[in-house]
Structure formats: C-alpha cells, structure tokens
Design a protein that fits this description.
- The complex is a heterodimer of chains A (392) and B (229).
- Chain A has helices at residues 2-6, 12-17, 22-34, 36-56, 66-74, 83-87, 95-116, 119-122, 142-147, 171-178, 212-219, 247-253, 272-278, 299-307, 314-321, 381-389; strands at 134-140, 155-161, 166-168, 197-201, 205-210, 231-235, 239-245, 280-288, 291-295, 329-335, 339-346, 349-356, 362-368, 371-377.
- Chain A is α+β, with helices and mostly antiparallel strands.
- Chain A has an eight-stranded antiparallel beta sheet with strand order 3-4-7-8-14-13-12-11, sandwiched between helices.
- The longest helix of chain A is centred in the N-terminal third of the chain and has 22 residues, at 95-116.
- Chain A is extended, with a radius of gyration of 26 Å.
- Chain B is an all-alpha fold.
- Helices cover 67% and strands 0% of the residues of chain B.
- Chain B contains ten helices and no strands.
- Chain B has helices at 2-26, 36-44, 48-69, 73-90, 100-118, 150-156, 162-173, 178-185, 189-213, 220-227.
- In chain B, helix 1 (2-26) packs across helix 3 and helix 5 (100-118) runs parallel beside helix 8 (178-185).
- Classes of the chains: A alpha+beta (392), B mainly alpha (229).
- Chains A and B meet through helix 2, helix 4, helix 5, helix 6 and helix 7 of A and helix 1, helix 3, helix 4, helix 6 and helix 7 of B.
Chain lengths: 392, 229
C-alpha cells in the first residue's frame, strides 16, 4: 500500500476527530494543505464526524437509580441496608445513631430534595404553570413508598439539563453566582460554630413525556389518550445552601479523607465526636421557586390518572387530593411515625416545622417573596425557629 | 402520586449523589483533583464514594457508548449497571496500561457482549468480512459525502453494522486514539484503521440505498439486529 505511505488516508479519521498528538497532527495538516485528494477526504470525514456527533451525542444521561441498583447488586440484593444508609459514611452507620439519623435524613431530604435535584420538582410537575406559595404535609407510610410505581414506567425524561452544585468562597460569591441576596442568621445557637460553607445549586430542568406505549409495555397498564403524549416541563430555581460544620462529611463527599480541614467537633470525646464531625450543625437554604408547565392534559387529569395507578393506597390518594389547589400548594411527603410536623409562623409568614420523634433534629420550611427558604439542624424546633427568624 | 413521595426520598439519595459529585468538581479549586487512577485504587480498597465519583465522571460517556451497542436505552442502563459492578470487582486488576476511561469502555463492552448473548440478541458477531481492507478512497462512481448529507447520514448510522457504528462513535464522539480504540475493541490497530475506512464506505452505501429506495433507514432495533448477522 504505497498509497498509504504517500497519503495518510488511514490517519485522516483521527485527524478529523482531533485525537492525534500535536506532532502527528501538524504533519498531516501540512500534507493536507498541499494535497487536494486528502483535503477532500478530510472534508468527508468532517461530515461523518458531524453526523456521528449529532446522532450519537443526542443521548442524554442514564436515568437516576443506575448507581443505586448497581450497589444493590454488589450487596447481593441484601435487604440489610437501605440505599440511604449505604451512602452514609461508615462511622455513621452504627445502629446507635441510625434512628436519630433517619429522622435527620428525612429533614435534610426535604431541604436537599428541593434544592439539589430536579426530582423534587417532578412531584409538582403535575401542575399547569405554577409557582408554589405554600406547603402541605402528606403523611406517607414506608409501605406506601415501597409500593409506589416507577415514574419512568409511564414515560420518558428528555432534555434533562443538570448543572452541578459548586462550593463558593463566601456568601458574596454565592450571591453573585446565583443572582440573589443570601440571608445570614443573626443568631446562632451555642452548638453551631465556625463559618459556613456556601454551596450554589444552579437551575435544573427536565421534561417528562407520558407514553401510553411505555406504560403498556413496562407497567402493563393502559393510559388514556389525553394523557398519552402530555409533557411536563420542569425547572427548578437557583439555590444557595449554607452548611455549618459537618466538615468531615463535606470532605468525605468531596472524596477527601477526613483529617484535612476538619472543623472543631461540637462535642468532646466519645463516639459522638466522629458523628458530630459528619453531621452539619446547621443548614440554611434559599431557592427560587420551581416552575412547571404542562402541554396536553390538565393537571387534574394527570393527578387523577397517577393516583389511580396500582401501588397508590386509597389513603394516600385521598391525602393528595385533600391538598386543594395544586398550582399553589406543594405536597411534602412525611413518613408516618418518623417525623412530627406543625404549622408555624416564621419571618411573618406561614411555614411548616418538622422534627423527628426523638427531638434530635428539626427543620422549618417557608415561602416568602417567591423564594423557598429552609433551615434544618440537629437542634430543638425552638432553636431552629430562632435561627430562621434571625435571617436577614 | 408517587412523584411526590418517592421522589423526595429518591431525591434525597440522588441529591446526596449529585451534591457529592459536584462538591468534587466544586472543590477542585480548593484541593488537588484526584485522578481516575487514584479513584480506581480507592475502589479496589472498597471505597464506595470513589465509585460514585468515578461514575459521575464517566456515566455519560459510557451510556452514550452503550446506547450504540444496544437496541434500547433500558438495556444500555442495565449494562451500565453491570459495568459498575464489574469495575468494582475488577478495580484491583487495573494495571495502568491504558487510561481508566479506556479500561472502563473495555469493561462496558464485555458486559454488553455478555448481556446481548444472554438475551439471545446477536452480540458482536465475528464480522471478519467487515474488516477486509478495501480501497479507502471513493471510486469515480461514488459521490463525495457533503455537508448537506449530515442529517441523512445521522439517520443512516442506525443502518450500519454494530462494529462499524462502534468504531465511528469511539473515534468521533469519544475522541479515543486508534490505540485506545484497539484496546477497547480488542483488535490490532490496523484493524481499527481499516474498519473506520470501511465504516465510512458502509455509511455511504446505506445513504445511497436509502435514497434509492426513497425511504428512511430502518429503526435502530432493526439496524442493530441486522448489523451483526
């Protein structure tokens, strides 16, 4: 193949892909500049490259849960540890702390789910264009949760745009990045020490499109014609989360072995110290309210269809229906027997306070001026409210 | 309304993952970014956080690759799952002869091969005929591919044989070098080169056949199945 020696034809795909090292690329560039035949071939490869990139590159991301399912497999489908526990650092997995942590995790979940994932807004995606103005608690049992059908059995997510959260240098940096003022507590309980780590969470969006074919094939249920093809476009807002303490957890999350910049433990000695290091002392969040837009069926129709699905208990369905105007009110699932909730006044508006049964952790959630606010901490509800009311 | 309830619970886990992944990227300016190889060593020492990070870094690329090897994205996700498990189990066997990404692609490919075979789908059949070296230059009778062909060529991709599609994707979408492609696909470098040339030729043929029949190229399923016969 003298052809190959004279014309680097076999190297041209790599050249067009840009994967050659700089020396090789320069040599080929020089050849191509002087050779009509190879220049034409490169032009063709560029066309192929564009076709490949636009076609194969259209695939977005794997759905959520792939990693969890892989870990379930690794664990031999052992029922011993729930996915949530699995993600906890080893030190926190001791049974002694499990109960307190379960409550804590629930409260944190409420904060995080709103801010960190588009998932938090899928729930509200059943609504026509809306912004939530208040919250309503929906009690759910663990059995309810386990029986719920997979949303992905009913359609497909597309145009998923997830931007990763980032740690910011300080409040001003976070504020500038997210385009919102950042409130700081004027009052800090004695147990909270040090300065917070600011994390910014940019807007996330996704579109869910109902598919009768998917429902038939996967969930083996029928879907009314008006639901089929209905799409729900959801966008969460920018958010800033300030985390006090929990440096070891942050480090661990960041893949850095603890021991580096570990904040002083809130408690001295004993087994608690390692946990104190893991658990944030206080979390303060502010987020723009999410928006959802439905194209197709009405929000009511979608809600009724989903509530009629196998796995949804009548009690849960009634509780969701009882929320009232879904375009203004967010349902928040709260595990029965794990968390107490009550209505409180915070920053002059109505909010919802959560606390776990042992009183180990508490949180409060409210909406004001179009922003969702949340404060959570391993403190009493009174202390959490004090912090929330001191935000300026 | 599982949407509400599970999603907050699932959201919790997802949130933790997302947060974890992003703290990694976010903290890069504060700390030394860990290389993939370091992560793989941590995985070999059964560190699950390292798995989560490695996954966060490579899930998209692996998923895109797997979607080209499988008839549907659901199966691609299952294989991606298998790939994580295999990487977890095989992390200690990584010898650093290739990049971690290349290693992961090779792991994913083996898992795809196994999964397709288990399901009775035609896996990567020996398609020796594909690799017969043909004159890589178009003959006088062949018209050159043009910018205006991009959309149609994209559609023609699904009509390609699996091995041809694979090599195009590894080269153009993932930007692997010939050496890396050879490692993933487990063939000599010369085969990678000829396969790429033949893939372009095949693409042109699918394109011409499509326009001759005046119908669009068959759906991916048909393409993938027909491909490896």
């Amino acid at each position: 193949m003298t052809e190959e020696r004279e014309h680097p034809v076999l190297e041209l795909p790599a050249f067009a892909a840009g994967s050659l090292d700089s020396d090789q690329a320069r040599a080929i560039e020089a050849h191509v500049a002087a050779c009509d035949q190879c220049r034409a071939a490169v032009a063709e490869w560029n066309v192929v490259r564009q076709a490949v990139q636009t076609t194969a590159g259209r695939v977005t991301s794997p759905s959520r849960g792939v990693l969890d399912r892989a870990f379930a497999k690794i664990d031999g489908e052992s029922r011993g540890s729930t996915p949530r526990e699995r993600w906890l650092p080893a030190g926190v997995r001791r049974p002694v702390f499990q109960r307190a942590l379960a409550g804590f995790a629930t409260v944190v979940a409420l904060v995080l789910a709103l801010a960190f994932t588009p998932v938090g807004s899928y729930a509200q995606g059943l609504l026509e264009v809306f912004r939530p103005q208040q919250f309503a608690v929906v009690p759910v049992s663990i059995a309810d949760l386990e029986a719920l059908p997979e949303l992905e059995h009913y359609g497909e997510f597309s145009q998923v745009e997830i931007e990763m959260p980032r740690i910011r240098a300080d409040a001003a940096d976070a504020s500038a990045a997210m385009g919102m003022s950042v409130l700081t507590p004027q009052y800090l309980p004695a147990a909270v020490s040090g300065s917070p780590t600011y994390i910014t969470v940019p807007r996330q969006s996704a579109t869910f499109t109902f598919s009768a074919a998917q429902a038939q094939a996967v969930a083996q249920v029928t879907m009314p014609a008006n639901i089929d093809g209905t799409s729900v476009q959801m966008t969460t807002g920018n958010a800033v989360v300030a985390v006090y303490g929990g440096q070891a957890l942050l480090d661990q999350l960041a893949g850095v072995p603890s021991g580096g910049q570990v904040a002083p433990p809130a408690h001295d000695g004993g087994p608690l110290s390692s946990v104190a290091n893991q658990i944030p002392q206080l979390i303060v969040m502010k987020a723009e309210a999410p928006v959802a837009t439905i194209t197709g069926a009405s929000a009511e129709d979608i809600r009724e269809y989903l509530l009629s699905q196998p796995g949804i208990s009548d009690r849960l369905a009634d509780a969701v229906r009882a929320i009232g105007d879904p375009t203004k009110t967010w349902p928040i699932p709260v595990p029965v027997g794990e968390v107490n909730t009550r209505s409180v006044t915070v920053q002059g508006v109505r909010g919802t306070a959560f606390s776990d049964l042992s009183g180990f952790v508490a949180g409060v959630l409210w909406v004001k001026n179009g922003f969702i606010h949340a404060v959570g901490a391993p403190l009493s509800e009174g202390e959490v409210l004090n912090v929330a009311n001191s935000l300026r | 309304l599982r949407l509400t309830a599970t999603n907050v619970v699932e959201g919790n886990m997802q949130a933790a993952r997302t947060m974890r992944a992003s703290l990694l990227s976010g903290s890069a300016n504060r700390r030394e970014h860990e290389t993939d190889a370091v992560l793989l060593r941590r995985i070999a020492a059964t560190d699950r956080h390292a798995v989560a990070e490695l996954y966060a870094r490579h899930q998209r690329a692996l998923f895109r690759y797997l979607c080209q090897l499988t008839p549907d994205s659901g199966l691609a996700e299952e294989i991606l799952q298998d790939t994580i498990v295999a990487a977890w189990q095989g992390a200690a066997s990584f010898e650093g002869r290739s990049t971690v990404q290349t290693w992961l692609f090779a792991v994913a490919r083996r898992q795809a091969h196994n999964a397709l075979r288990r399901r009775g789908l035609p896996p990567f059949a020996d398609e020796d005929a594909l690799d017969v070296v043909v004159d890589p230059e178009p003959g006088p009778e062949e018209r050159a591919l043009q910018q205006s062909d991009v959309v149609e060529l994209g559609r023609a991709m699904s009509g390609l044989s699996l091995l041809h599609r694979e090599v195009l994707v590894l080269n153009f979408l993932h930007g692997l070098s010939y050496e890396e492609i050879a490692t993933v696909v487990d063939v000599p470098i010369g085969t990678v080169k000829s396969r790429l040339s033949n893939a372009k030729r095949a693409l042109r043929e699918v394109l011409l056949a499509g326009s001759a029949d005046d119908r669009s190229v068959p759906h991916t399923d048909a393409g993938a199945k027909g491909a490896s016969r």
